[in-house]
Write a structure and sequence with these properties.
mainly alpha, 7 helices, globular, DNA-binding, Helix-turn-helix transcriptional regulator, Metal_resp_trans_reg
Length: 120
């Protein structure tokens, strides 16, 4: 039984709790959340990301550098351009879940529940 408990990283005494807090801190910025939302569709260059999130390329580059260090995004060289993409699906899912939670905070039936309802 203890072997099973050690294998689960979702226990309250998990070695990953502090790292998870760092992930949340990284996502506690609206620009970074918007960057993740923009990258859901695939790779983008800094200029396209800047336009998508409504920030300057310099600002977006600074956010991307931090996100790259946190291993949320990765890069690929395409000639003279650097293309950014999500490192894995987890940051995308965290952002989606946070937005769904925000919809719940408004009360009523959240949009993400309305789209899942089956018509009679």
């Amino acid at each position: 039984m203890n072997a099973d408990k050690r294998a689960c990283s979702l226990d309250v005494d998990s070695q990953y709790v502090e790292l998870a807090v760092e992930v949340f801190a990284m996502l506690a910025d609206a620009t970074r959340v918007r960057i993740i939302l923009a990258l859901r569709g695939g790779e983008m260059a800094v200029g396209a990301l800047a336009e998508a999130v409504g920030k300057s390329p310099a600002s977006v580059s600074q956010h991307l550098a931090k996100m790259r260090l946190a291993r949320m995004v990765s890069t690929r060289q395409d000639g003279t351009r650097v293309m950014y993409r999500l490192e894995n699906e987890h940051a995308r899912q965290l952002v989606a879940d946070a937005i769904y939670q925000a919809e719940h905070a408004l009360g009523g039936t959240p949009a993400h529940h309305r789209s899942e309802q089956v018509a009679p």
